[in-house]
Amino acid sequence: MRSILEISFPECDVMEAGSFEEALDALQQADEVDLVLLDITMPDVERLSGLRQLRADFPSTPVVMVTGLNDPIIMRDALAAGAAGFVPKSLKRQAILDALQQVLSGEIYLPDLESVGSDDTRIREDEEIRAKIDSLTPQQRVVLGHLVAGLLNKQIAHELDVSMTTVKAHVSAILQKLNVFSRTQAVIMANRVGFVD
What we know:
The chain is mostly helical. The chain has helices spanning about 1-10, 20-30, 50-55, 70-80, 95-105, 120-135, 140-150, 155-160, 165-180, 185-190, and strands at about 35-40, 65, 85-90. It folds into two domains: about 1-115, 3-Layer(aba) Sandwich (Rossmann fold), CATH 3.40.50; about 120-190, Arc Repressor Mutant, subunit A (Orthogonal Bundle).
């Protein structure tokens, strides 16, 4: 992305940040920023929390979500939260440039719906995943949140002040309700629909 910007906009200064905190610091110190490209999976950001904070702190700076997730629901939610555009990383170079030019000229950019996998099947699958997650008890949702955060059973037991046996029972129940066979599958499923406990 950086090389595309530097080649196509040779006059522009490109700032990079490895985390959302770094990005906030850079924006606060910068004189004027024309555009922010925010990766939806950036460290220390939960789903669209970074977008919401940028819109609150820098309301006049357009924010374009850049993502490898071809999810029409996330796209819809991002636009509702104030994104000026939604650019899948799978777009060709010229399409990315056209999208950024459109945003810089004051418009909102949306990829065509086919390119973000907006078929009914995908939407129905996501609804089914959400229904399965909704069937979890409050404590199971908390445990799932810890699984998504990458905690081991021992760490979860410590965090919740419960026994390892209790954590294992919760994890087993979560896998059964989500109809998956491993913690990794459960985490992938939760991330797909942007689960945040």
